[in-house]
Known about the structure:
Blueprint: H1 18-29, E1 33-34, H2 35-38, H3 44-49, E2 54-57, E3 61-62, E4 72-73, H4 83-94, E5 98-103, H5 114-127, E6 132-136, H6 144-152, E7 157-159, H7 169-172, H8 178-191, E8 196-203, H9 209-221, E9 226-231, H10 248-260, E10 265-268, H11 278-286
Parallel strand pairs: 2-5, 3-4, 5-6, 6-7, 7-8, 8-9, 9-10
Antiparallel strand pairs: 1-2
Amino acid sequence: MVDRRKPEWLKSKQIPTEEEQKVRRLMKNLHLNTVCREARCPNRVECFNRGTATFLIMGDTCTRRCRFCNVNKGKPQPLDKEEPRHVAEAVKALGLKYVVITSVTRDDLPDGGAAHFASVIRKVREIDPGVGIEVLIPDFQGDSDSLNTVLDARPDVLNHNVETVSRLYEAVRPGAVYERSLELLARAKTINPSIKTKSGLMVGLGETDAELYGVFADLRKAGCDLLTIGQYLAPTKEHYPVADYILPEKFEEYRAKALEMGFLDAASGPLVRSSYKAGEMFRGCSV
Length: 287
């Protein structure tokens, strides 16, 4: 078992600022959640200090029990019909030019929350048609109508994380299906090729390089444009254990391999997460 002590390169030294407090107050006043806080993202202070956040819609309680995730599990509350407006108000107040919207998984809803995603996208567009919008969606249990609903709202980036290699799904992502996630990404690219597709992977769960590069190949076959790769960090002792801390130079190898295989861009580093500097990645591949 890996030493539980984090190596120096994984220790965040970010100092909260007034801008970070401004974001926190705004989210609280508008009754909004951020995945930054709920998932204990190591970059949350840096992002808040830059006046950005990833919105977590449809509540803070997930219907699935993935062993890597710190978001609450259980029976969710009904959807907040005012949430799309509140997200749009937050985007305006923060002066955002690029926004990432994700959600808990809501298998309790007939469409998995797809219509709610679409409503948020459209409400943000009403505030500023020029805002770049990335949605990080669940798999909607493979329902094609739900995917169409989100794509019809025309986000700029459709992100869906495969998270890990297929061998580890049963242990790490019970309730998810590797092939279903690949199919979702492939279908999105087929339905609207102009929308960039994106996925993310955690490493340090016990995968091999061969398995990891096999996922790269599967994602490229599905037409995936953008990739993020970051170190898995267990939120608590009860979560899936870290198998290995990957050296920073290894992440450079991962990025080089991803670009070699045809991804338009790849962010790879110990503290990289799905939405880390997402706007920069999108703009870089759209020029």
